[in-house]
Amino acid sequence: MVVKYEKRTSVTMPVSQTSSLKDIFFEEDDLPFEEDILRNPYTVKCWLRYLEHKKDGSHSTLNVIYERALKELPGSYKLWYNYLRLRRQQVRGKCITEPSYEDVNSAHERSLVFMHKMPRIWLDYCEFLMSQGLISRTRRTFDRALRALPITQHHRIWPLYLKFVRMYDLKETAVRVYRRYLKLSKENTEDYIEYLKSIGWLDEAVLRLADIINDDSFVSKEGKSKHQLWNELCDLIAKNPDKVTSMNIEPIIRQGLKRYTDQIGVLWNSLADYYIRGGHFERARDIYEEAILTVITVRDFTQVFDAYAQFEKNLISAKMESMEEEGPTDEDDLDLELRLARLESLMDRRQLLLNSVLLRQNPHNVHEWHKRVKLYEGKPREIITTYTEAVQTVDPKIASGKPHTLWCEFAKFYESADQIEDARIIFDKAIKVPYKHVDDLASVYCEWAEMEIRHENYEDSLKIMQKATTPPPRKVAYHDETETVQARVHKSLKVWSLYADLEESFGTFKTCKTVYDRIIDLRIATPQIIMNYGLFLEENNYFEEAFKAYEKGIALFKWPNVFDLWNTYLTKFIERYGGNKLERARDLFEQCLEDCPPKFTKAIYLLYAKLEEDYGLARHAMSVYDRATQAVLPEEQNEMFNVYIKRAAELYGVTYTRPIYEKAIEVLNNDQAREMCVRFADLERKLGEIDRARAIYAHCSQTCDPRTTANFWQTWKDFEIKHGNEDTVREMLRIKRSVQAMYNTQVNFMSAQMLAAATSKGDDPDTETNDEMQKLEEKARQMAEEAINEKSKPDKGILFVRSNTTDEELGEMVKTTNPDEINIDEDYSTDDDEQIEEIQQQSIPSDVFGGLNNKDDDDDD
Fold first, then answer.
1. What is the predicted pLDDT for the residue at 5?
2. CA nearest 180: which of 167, 194, 165, 168?
3. Strand, helix or coil at 73?
4. What is the pLDDT of residue 500?
5. Percent helix, strand, coil in the chain (nearest 5)?
6. Contact yes or no for 22/5 (Cβ under 8 A)
7. Burial class of 55 by CB neighbour count within 10 A (0 to 12, 13 to 18, 19+)
8. Which of 265, 184, 194, 178 lies closest to 229 in space, CA to CA?
């Protein structure tokens, strides 16, 4: 059933009047909703429920309901928003020229009467207009939106507005819109600059970029520093000289050269590139020349020089191409030759220009000044100019290198040109320079004197050195930095050494002796100076004066510096006097040895002993040798004992060497003592003292492990085979077993430690590791069993027999029975096989145990 309903009309509401609202037809299902909105016409929820009910209806029905609702509630944002969205959906996909689009535009315009403060309505309307391609109407609508909305909501409109102006090739319009936008949001200037670059408006882009660089409060949204922005500005201007006319690049880059010192090479190249692109080649060449004469780092120089060379090569290539196309003329040939000459000249100047860069970096670098002189080789005028500039520029106090070498080389240059007077003038100026070190001034004096010697002006050279060694009126310390070097040079050893050599060569004996005495009085002498002084006096037959000079030098120095002086002094004294002044020589030796370190005593003692042997008493010589064996270093004692034994045997016979051998065996380490024991035993064997030799072998055996000292045991065995009997061989083997058992015990202890260390580290469960562990355990067990089986009681009858024991006493000691002796079978083999198959039990005297009698012994009896 269709019910006819007459609707109230109102002429004041801005709703569409295109469709007649006098007769509205609705279905029966709509009746409850119609009654609800009749009762509550101003309630939004009632209208929304009705619209929800009719959402599947026709477009016209929904539009009529929305129009009726908005006529009652024109200020409802929700109704307007949904209505406009519905109308836009209805025309989606249709041709933009259809009248329905205009109806939707009209609906938006009507909504803005009430919704002009709602940015969402404006944004939807503008997007809808943009989709229709209505450029002017869209732009005006954006402008209306910005005027209608408060400024706090403009940020929602501008992104869409900017997107709209970038959609079309309307450069002027877009620039004007961007300018308005930047008044509100200056932080987005970089986006504007990028847009200007994209449309080719580089002049405007450069101006905007300069503004943000000069604005200290500007912070880049892209995180660029002022330096990066400044480089971007320079690139824009340099690469587009024809498009950028409102700014001059040269003041900008020169300002950057002062601010950004790490980009000097790049900036100079940018400035030159600007003029090259503009066709001003001569100006570009001037810029390059100025750059390579002002840069102070090798990196910047390399950048500028390479760009300069490439620029010249490009000019030559371009000229040759144009000549090929148009045909060469005489003027073109001259121009080409000129360009080639410029390039060649530039390449030839590279080393000199690089040297200039290093000198600008550090004008006090002496080494670089010398290199610069070498670069000017063959050009005397430039060399003189360079030396003059160098000595005027270099400050000796902060110079890198030796500044005096500049003056010396300058003078040598004049000398090589036979201009001696000019060289003297240079040296005279050089000695007045305030050097940092005294040695620099001393070197200048020495070079001056040597130059005079080369030209055979010996008197002048002596005068120069005399001038250098003349002391100032007041006393000055050599190391006093507050005094000038000119006031301290009189204590320079280098000057005095040369002065002494000159006096020795060209002066008199008296003047030379005065120089040497003056050196000693100033306490600047070295041991070599003293020795030279002594040799000079000896050459002139002033031997006692030479000995006094040595004594003065000895008083000046301490050990070890004084060793050479003592050695020379004592040798010269013995050569001079021999045994005539023996007591004086002895006193000198004793004085020398009083504080002599062990490192230097050996040579002195040998010289002392040689003196006693040649001119003194033999017993004194033996005493000196004996003292020497105690005073020398431990590693030199063996050699000293060998000398002592050899000299004692020659002077007193071999029997006198017995106490020396005994002392050596006590003092030396095991290896050296073992060697000494073998020699001692061999001596006794040669003397027929077989028992003494055997006792020596027995004493030495206690420090000889049979595994490591097989030679010793073989020597003893050979000795027993030649001079012993079965009993002595058995005794030797018993001692050998005893010593081996002792060392086996120590080896077992070491093996146990190694085994424990291997166990603590062996956490790896591999099979190979377990096998190695088992082998170590088995080896340790076997060695322990061998030690237990072979262990025997020590022999108390083997004693070290000294040389004062008589033959009868030694024989009795050897024949003494040993109650603890082990009874060995008669058929016991004397070979090295030391395994004892069976040990017979034998009664042990009860006195051995004292009061501890064992009951088992009684049972055995």
1. 31
2. 165
3. coil
4. 79
5. 70, 0, 25
6. no
7. exposed
8. 194
Amino acid identity of 383?
A: I
Structure tokens at 107: 């609906």
The DSSP element (H or E) to which 3 belongs, if any, is strand 3-6
Structural tokens at position 269: 């190249």
**Distance separating alpha carbons of residues 298 and 607, to the nearest angstrom:** 65
Please identify which residue in the block is written with the tokens 């071999």.
Answer: 654
Tell me, what's the pLDDT at 824? Answer: 41
DSSP assignment letter at 702: G
Enumerate residues 6+ apart whose C-beta is below 8 A from 490: 468, 469, 470, 471, 472
567, 601, 660, 824 from 636: Cα distances, Å: 19, 10, 16, 46
Q: Judge if pTM exceeds 0.85.
A: no
| Phi/psi-derived region of residue 147, left when phi > 0, alpha when psi is between -120 and 50, beta in every other case | alpha
Which amino acid appears at position 253 of this protein?
Answer: I
Residue 620, pLDDT score: 80
CB 674, CB 704: distance < 8 Å = yes
For 301, the token pair is 């120089």
Token pair, residue 452, equals 């005079």
315-327 as b/e: b if 16+ CB within 10 A: bbeebeeeeeeee
Alpha-carbon distance of 807 to 788, in angstroms, equals 38
Give ∠ CA 681-682-686 in degrees, rounded to 5.
115
Alpha helices in 40-186 (DSSP H): 44-53, 59-72, 77-91, 99-115, 119-132, 135-148, 154-167, 171-184
10 Å CB burial of residue 9 (0-12, 13-18, 19+) is exposed
Hey, what amino acid is at 511? T
Q: Which residues of the chain have pLDDT under 70?
A: 1-26, 28, 30, 35, 53, 57, 247, 479, 507, 579, 746-777, 779-781, 783-861
Residue-level pLDDT at 822: 44
Summarised one tens digit per residue, pLDDT across range 425-454 is 888 888 888 888 888 888 888 888 888 888
Helix axes 350-361, 366-375, angle to 10 degrees: 160
Going from the C-alpha of 215 to that of each of 229, 267, 638, the distances in angstroms are: 12, 22, 89
Query: What integer pLDDT is reported at residue 20 of this predicted model?
Result: 41
- What are the tokens at 214? 């000069």
What pLDDT was estimated at residue 756? Answer: 52
* Rounded CA separation 626/629 (Å): 5
Residue 641 buriedness (CB in 10 A; 0-12 / 13-18 / 19+): buried
pLDDT for residue 814? 36
Q: What is the pLDDT, as a whole number, of residue 810? A: 37
Distance CA(172)–CA(160), nearest Å, equals 18
Please state at what angle helix 618-631 crosses helix 658-667, rounded to 10 degrees. 10
Read off the pLDDT of residues 190-223 as tens digits, 9 standing for 90 and up. 888 888 888 888 878 888 887 887 777 888 878 8
Nearest residue to 391 via CA among 383, 207, 119, 856: 383
Give the integer Cα–Cα distance in Å for 128 and 94: 13
Count how many Cα atoms sit within 13 Å of the Cα of residue 775 in the half-sphere of its side chain: 6
Measured CA distances, 818 to 814, 815, 821 (Å): 10, 9, 5
Spell out the SS3 assignment of 5-52: EECCCCCCCCCCCCCCCCEEEECHHHHHHHHHHHHCCCCHHHHHHHHH
Q: Where are the alpha helices (DSSP H) in 688-725?
A: 690-700, 710-723
Q: Residues 123-134, buried b or exposed e (16+ Cβ, 10 A)?
A: bbbbebbbebeb
Is 601 buried (19+), middle (13-18) or exposed (0-12) by CB count in 10 A?
Answer: buried
Closest CA to 161 of 142, 187, 183, 182: 142
> What kind and span of H or E run contains 4?
strand 3-6
